[in-house]
Every structure is written in C-alpha cells, then in structure tokens.
C-alpha cells in the first residue's frame, strides 16, 4: 500500500502544479476585477498572447528563456498601451460597457492570431537543460520542466505577496481598492497605480502562457478555456483577494486532477461542482468581503 | 462557451452575406447559352477542412479524388464534372448549415465529406433529410453506418470500431492481460476504447481502467500518474493530431514507454511522426493502410500522387482516391444518370475496389470490409508488420438496411 500512497502524493503534486499556473492568470484577473472594478473578459487572450509570443520568439531566437525575457517587456508594454487607450475610459462606466469592450477585444485578438499564426496547433520545445525526467517510482518519471515551472510560479507568487503587503506601491493599491478619492487627495497619482496594476495583470497572464507553452502546446481558443476556469477561481477565492485566488487555484487544480482520476466520466464537471459547493457555504467566496 | 458561439455566429453572418452577394452577382452574369444545348455537369460538393488542424488531410482527400477521376478521363458516366468546394473548418456547429448550403443553394448531386466525425454527423442528418447522395471519405463515427445507415450514405474509410477492434485482438494475441484505455471524452473516443475492450476481453484480457479527459485538453499528467499506479500490460490510446503528438511525447517523458507498451489506432502515429520524434519509435498501431505495402496498385498510386501534387500519399489520400473509384463505378453503371437512384446505389454497393490499401468491398451498411494491418513505427514511417485481421466488417448494429 505504500506504493499507492506514493502515487497519491504524486497526484497532489500534479494538482498543485496545475493550480500554481492557474494562479498566475487568476491573480491578475482578480486584481483588475477587485481593485479597478473591471470585468476583463479579454484576460484569457493575454494568456494566449503570451503563449504565441513565446512560440514566435522561441522560433526566432532558438531559446525559450531568451524568448521569455523578450516577451515580458512586450507584454507589459501592451498592457500599458491597452490601459491608456481603452480601459481607463471604463473605470466609471457600467459593467455592461466593460463586457462589450473586452468581448470585442477577444474577437480582435483571436482574428489577429488567426491572421498572423494560422489555426494550427504548435508545439514549443522545452529548453535543453530542462529536457529530462526524474525517476520517482519504478515505472514513473517526472519531467524536470514541470517541476521548474512550479518553482517559478511559487517565486512569482511570493514576489506578489511582498509587493502587495510590503511596498509603498502595494499600500497604494490596497488603499485605492477601498477608497479611490481618499488616496487621490493624499497626493498619490491613482491613475498610474491603476495603470501599473493593469499592466502587471497582463504581464502575469502572458507569463503564464509563456511558461505553459511547452507543456500545453499553443492552439486557437486556448485563452477562452483558461478564462472560464480563472473566473471560477476568482469567484471561489473572493473577488479582489490575492490570497483567495491562491487558495482557489490550488483547490481547482486538485479538484480537477483527482476528478480526472477518480471519476473520469465526469472529469469536466468537478471544478464546477466545487464552485457550487463553495458558494453555498460562502456566497462571497473564501476571502470575499462583499457579496459577489 | 457562449463566447465562442457568439464569435462564430458573427463570422457566419458575415460569410453568408458575402456568399449570398457573390452568388447573386455570379447568377446575373452567367451567359444563357451555357444552360441550353449541353448536358449539365455532375456537381460534386466537396465539404472538407481546407483550413485549420485538418487542412492537410482535406487537401489530400481532395487531390486524390480528382486524381482518381482524371486517370479515367476526367468524366463521370460520360458527363463533365463541376467541383464545388466548401471549407467545413472542422466545426460541428456549422455542419448542417454548410451541408445545406451545398444541397439547396448549389444543388450538388453528391455531397462528399468529411474528416471530423462531429461534422460528419451533421452531414449524415442533412443527407437523410434531403435524400442527397453522401460519401464519407474519412470520419469514422460508427452511427453513420449503423443506426443512421441509409441507401444514399456510403463510407470509403473505416468505422471507429474497426481499427480499435483489430488492436484489441493483437494485444490479446500477444499475451497481454491487463489494459488501461485513455481518450478524449467524446463519442469517437468512447467508440474506439469500447471496441478495443470488446476484442481484448474476447481474447482473455481485461480493461482495468478507462480514463477520459475533456476534448481537446492536453494536460495528461494526472492520467499518466494513474496509469503508472495501475501498472497495466498495455495502454490503448485514442488521440489524433496535436493531441496525439502531445500524448505520445508526454508518455515517453513520464518514463512509461520503457515498461508499458503504448498502442492505438493508426491515427495515433499517422501524420504526426515528425512531431513525436523518438518518443514514437517502435510503437505498434493498427490501420487499413501502412507504409511499405507492395501491391502494384499501391506503388502506382503513390507515384501518380507524388507526380500530381509533389507530396507523399497517406491514408487520407487513399480514402479520397477510393471515393473517386466509388463515383466512377456508380455513375459509370448508370451512364451518368444520377436520377436513376436505385441502379446507382446498387452499382455503388457492388463496387469491387482495387485500392492502394488492398482489394476490398462494401458491407450491406455501406462501410468497407477490409484487411487491417499491424504497423510498427520506424523512423518517420508506419511500416507494415502483418495482417492483424483479414476482411474485418463493422458489426453494423442497428442498421435496418439490406
């Protein structure tokens, strides 16, 4: 039986790993939603953008790490530009306008993707120094890239916690979420805080797409899949709560993993059942301050 | 999901507007004399994937079909041919609309398509509703030649049941006792894994676990871990295209390849070997075509296809070629008179195919009764090993015809 316990632990590792990647996407979504009050349906497109940037730049430079280094500033720049050109006009508008604009953005991103890259599924090569597997049991090895990916996700999560809890910018972000006018009258340029938060959210989602590209492949509509599941995470965790997004992501990752193994016939449903259960128990989500 | 649908419907509206505008413009410019004094052309409506993941497959089917007909003089029963092509985008949601377009707007005599089983189902429904002749050159969804079979519906490829049943027998004959089956959670996947289990059980084996993941997901890690914990003698997987590349590579990266053989229907390693690389070497699969078949017909076909397209032929090209053969035989028998439906269907049913895949005939349910080959991956080829099952016919459960 020691054997089956080992496999149980490996499945937990799988679930945590899926959850950590999801966290990168969901954290940006919950920040933009909770702090700026924007429902951003285009968030999944940023994930896709990151994956395709990694694919294109890795093909051009022959090295995924170089590609990621180049793609992160690009993603940040795109985030800043989008905020300046489009999103800042939406802060005081109704949610309906936000849904219209961001839905329109999904169409624009998907069509551009189709024009530039076509509709085929593409693979991205794993960097050579990580392209090996570590034997865990007699017959199962674990790809080193997946472990490295999880480690990077954990680092990013830690850095975010530091940023939000320990820095001046983090303080301004938290304060701005509670009372925008008060922060402004204290002499803090809230517009720039929002812009930074938005660009950070875009970069996080794009980064998730970049590091996931080698294990998930790059394909049309990949953004929509992760968008839906990210909204589930945001709802479970409580809107605007980074802590909630973290726990929610891990819960979803584990539920999805064990759902696939234990009830394969209902694999697609487990995460939604989990969401329903959490909402019955806590209608505002795990760490939500107000009713969603 | 609404997101995707809304987007599609917007596209659809634009496209159909453009198409209508085009049709109106074309209609007003057609010189009248073409319509008089000349026998009308036979209209073939090719509804295939010309873009997207399956584009290469659709192209091969299309090219090989035209090759078959042009080898015989480029006419069907003495009549010239007009090809109407339509991109199905492998999009089941647009299937019936596209098929209806070909039937009611273009008034095609034959509907021919397609690759994706979901779209095939939509085409089958349209063909049944409008009583249009339909030839399926790939999609293996079993229902098309089972409960939904009809005199006007033919298939020149296979049913999902066939290659899977052949593989189950091979695995059992090799002395394997415990299996795990894995696929996407959709009709074709379930049909395939069930058929494997059917013959594997008959041969004394047992399927210990069935694993499914949502289509078209490629996060296989939890399922690979589960396979390692069950420790079966063999794993049967049904995936195609990008999913097949990913699964075979992940399977090898998880270290499972060394201890548990991975097998599947031919699609697991067909047209995907370049992407799979070393991970696929030595894998065994079953299909109705293989590399290294030495029939003179196959050699001649491969040479002709290469000459016409400068690409290498594959199983999809073979199926397209045989679709051409079926048209030639049917329309040849009725001298091009598509209205003589009964004689046409009768002649098509009796077609003796001298195909690149080997000789075969059609079952009463209009599905090929054909040999299935065991193949082994060597380099970039699925080399012929042996005949897994001779003249295998789909059971055609629920087909009331014939």
Structure overview:
The complex is a heterodimer of chains A (292) and B (402). Chain A has 292 residues and is mainly α. Chain A has one domain (2-222). Chain A contains eleven helices and two strands, in the order H-H-H-H-E-E-H-H-H-H-H-H-H. A two-stranded antiparallel sheet of chain A has the order 1-2. In chain A, helix 1 (2-36) packs antiparallel against helix 10 (242-262). The longest helix of chain A has 35 residues, at 2-36. The model of chain A has no long low-confidence stretch (mean pLDDT 90). Chain B is α/β, with parallel strands linked by helices. Chain B folds into two domains: 39-158 and 296-369, Rossmann fold (3-Layer(aba) Sandwich); 161-287, 3-Layer(aba) Sandwich (Rossmann fold). Chain B has helices at 2-29, 55-71, 95-105, 117-130, 161-173, 187-202, 221-230, 241-253, 273-276, 296-309, 315-333, 341-349, and strands spanning 42-48, 81-87, 110-112, 133-136, 153-155, 178-184, 206-213, 234-238, 262-265, 284-287, 353-355, 358-362, 368-378, 381-392. In chain B, strands 6, 7, 8, 9, 10, 11, 12, 13 and 14 form a nine-stranded mixed β-sheet that branches. In chain B, strands 2-1-3-4-5 form a five-stranded parallel β-sheet, sandwiched between helices. In chain B, helix 11 (315-333) packs across helix 12. The radius of gyration of chain B is 22 Å and the shape is globular. Classes of the chains: A mainly alpha (292), B alpha/beta (402). Chain A binds chain B through residues 3-4, 7, 10-11, 14-15, 17-18, 41, 103, 106-107, 110, 118-121, 123, 133, 135, 137-143, 146, 215-217, 219, 221, 224-225, 227-228, 256-258, 260-261, 264-265, 267-268, and chain B through 1, 3-4, 6-7, 10, 51-53, 55, 185, 210-214, 216-219, 221-226, 228-229, 231, 241-242, 245-246, 250, 253-256, 258-260, 275.
């Amino acid at each position: 039986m020691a054997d089956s316990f080992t496999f149980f632990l490996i499945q937990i590792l799988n679930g945590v790993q899926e959850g950590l990647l999801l966290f990168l996407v969901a954290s940006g979504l919950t920040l933009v939603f909770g702090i700026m009050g924007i429902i951003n349906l285009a968030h999944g497109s940023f994930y896709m953008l990151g994956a395709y940037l990694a694919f294109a730049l890795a093909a051009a430079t022959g090295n995924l790490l170089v590609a990621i280094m180049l793609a992160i500033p690009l993603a940040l720049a795109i985030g800043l530009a989008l905020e300046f050109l489009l999103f800042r006009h939406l802060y005081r508008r109704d949610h309906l306008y936000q849904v219209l604009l961001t839905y329109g953005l999904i169409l624009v991103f998907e069509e551009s993707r189709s024009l530039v890259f076509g509709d085929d599924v593409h693979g991205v090569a794993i960097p050579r120094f990580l392209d090996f597997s570590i034997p865990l049991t007699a017959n199962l090895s674990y790809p080193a890239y997946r472990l490295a990916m999880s480690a990077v996700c954990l680092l990013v999560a830690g850095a975010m916690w530091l940023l939000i809890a320990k820095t001046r910018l983090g303080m301004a972000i938290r304060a701005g979420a509670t009372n925008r006018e008060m922060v402004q009258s204290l002499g803090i340029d809230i517009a720039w805080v929002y812009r930074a938060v938005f660009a950070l959210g875009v970069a996080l989602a794009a980064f998730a797409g970049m590091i996931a590209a080698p294990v998930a492949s790059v394909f049309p509509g990949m953004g929509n899949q992760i968008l839906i599941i990210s909204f589930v995470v945001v709802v479970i965790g409580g809107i605007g709560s980074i802590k909630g997004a973290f726990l929610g992501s891990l819960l979803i990752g584990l539920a999805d993993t064990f759902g696939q193994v234990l009830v394969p016939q209902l694999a697609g449903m487990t995460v939604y059942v989990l969401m329903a259960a959490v909402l019955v128990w806590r209608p505002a989500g795990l760490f939500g301050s107000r009713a969603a | 999901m609404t997101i995707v649908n809304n987007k599609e419907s917007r596209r659809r509206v634009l496209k159909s507007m453009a198409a209508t505008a085009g049709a109106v413009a074309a209609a007003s410019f057609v010189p009248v004399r073409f319509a008089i004094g000349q026998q009308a052309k036979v209209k073939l409506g090719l509804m295939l994937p010309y873009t997207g993941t399956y584009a290469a497959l659709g192209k091969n089917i299309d090219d090989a079909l035209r090759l078959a007909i042009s080898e015989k003089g480029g006419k069907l029963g003495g009549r010239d041919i007009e090809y109407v092509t339509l991109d199905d985008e492998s999009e089941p949601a647009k299937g019936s609309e596209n098929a209806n377009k070909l039937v009611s707007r273009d008034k095609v005599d034959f509907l021919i398509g397609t690759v994706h089983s979901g779209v095939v189902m939509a085409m089958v429904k349209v063909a049944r509703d409008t009583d249009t002749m339909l030839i399926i050159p790939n999609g293996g969804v079993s229902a098309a030649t089972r409960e939904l079979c009809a005199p006007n519906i033919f298939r020149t490829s296979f049913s999902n049941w066939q290659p899977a049943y052949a593989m189950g027998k091979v695995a059992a004959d090799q002395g394997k006792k415990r299996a795990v089956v894995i696929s996407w959670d959709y009709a074709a996947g379930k049909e395939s894994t069930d058929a494997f289990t059917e013959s594997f059980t008959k041969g004394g084996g047992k399927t210990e676990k069935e694993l499914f993941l949502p289509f078209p997901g490629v996060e296989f890690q939890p399922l690979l871990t589960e396979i390692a914990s069950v420790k079966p003698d063999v794993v049967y997987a049904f995936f195609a295209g990008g999913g097949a590349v990913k699964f075979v590579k992940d399977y090898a990266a998880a270290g499972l390849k060394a201890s548990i053989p991975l097998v599947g229907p031919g699609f697991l390693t067909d047209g995907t070997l370049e992407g799979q690389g070393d991970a696929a070497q030595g894998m065994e699969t079953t299909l109705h075509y293989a590399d290294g078949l030495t029939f003179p017909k196959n050699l001649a076909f491969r040479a002709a296809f290469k000459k016409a397209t400068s690409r290498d032929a594959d199983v999809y090209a073979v199926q397209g070629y045989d679709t051409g053969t079926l048209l030639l035989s049917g329309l040849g028998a009725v001298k091009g008179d598509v209205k003589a439906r009964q004689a046409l269907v009768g002649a098509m049913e009796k077609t003796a195919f001298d195909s690149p895949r080997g000789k075969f005939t059609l079952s009463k349910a209009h599905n090929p009764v054909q040999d299935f080959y065991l193949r082994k991956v060597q380099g970039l080829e699925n080399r012929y090993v042996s005949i897994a099952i001779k003249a295998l016919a789909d059971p055609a459960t629920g087909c009331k015809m014939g």
